[in-house]
Specification:
2 domains; Rossmann fold; seven-stranded mixed sheet; 31% helix; alpha/beta
């Protein structure tokens, strides 16, 4: 997707003017204009059961489906982008359509992106074909994992491969001990890395606790 003529929004990141697309504004506008969903129902991913009309659930589900198929499963925020950018250069594995990577590129972050399946007609960013093995080739870059599949070995394979090749930094976007990654992945992350920065993320109206975290390899684990 390259038709970005009307979407950039100027923001200040670490004192410099940068351009990037505000996903939150896009989501809200699409919900209001395309689906006429009430703002209180979306509330940028924070449902309030006292205000939420469950008769809108099907419409909101259709909205969520369209948005996830266009952008991804979670919404980038300025705070999340800043802490990820600070780790650059990056190698992203399981990049999907590359929307987060596209925004990071707008922030002038050096990022390579890989995925095993590529829908070239819908990409936001140049995503190359590849999987966990790429983590070993780019151990000099921070590993970026965004919404890795639940209870599958992909996230753990990426993290272990990167770690064993000497990788020292990881950025992870998803649920902690929840619906992304596997228990083994989260255990490995807790055992071998320490948290550097964390920030919560909004969702497309999900009852899920989503966050972006950056992690540095423990010194005693750097042998």
């Amino acid at each position: 997707m390259t038709d970005d003529t009307s979407i950039p929004r100027r923001v200040r990141v670490r004192g410099e003017e940068r351009i990037y697309r505000s996903a939150l504004q896009d989501l809200h506008q699409q919900a209001m204009e395309t689906y006429r969903a009430p703002a209180a129902a979306l509330d940028f991913g924070r449902y309030d059961s006292r205000r939420y009309d469950f008769r809108e659930s099907h419409r909101l589900y259709e909205l969520r489906l369209q948005l996830t198929e266009t952008y991804g499963y979670c919404i980038p925020t300025e705070a999340a982008l800043e802490i990820i950018a600070a780790l650059g250069p990056l190698v992203s594995i399981g990049a999907g359509l590359g929307y987060w990577e596209h925004i990071l590129g707008q922030l002038r972050v050096d990022c390579l992106a890989y995925d095993r399946e590529i829908d070239s007609a819908r990409l936001w960013f140049p995503v190359r074909r590849g999987g966990p093995q790429q983590a070993a080739l780019y151990a000099d870059r921070a590993l970026l994992l965004i919404w890795p599949p639940y209870d599958l070995p992909m996230a753990l394979e990426c993290l272990q491969t990167h770690h064993d090749a000497g990788g020292r930094a990881v950025a992870y976007v998803g649920e902690v001990w929840g619906c992304t990654g596997s228990d083994e992945f989260h255990q490995f992350l807790e055992t071998h890395y320490q948290v550097q920065s964390e920030t919560e993320l909004p969702m497309y109206g999900e009852f899920i606790h989503v966050q972006c975290g950056t992690y540095l390899r423990l010194e005693e684990d750097s042998s």
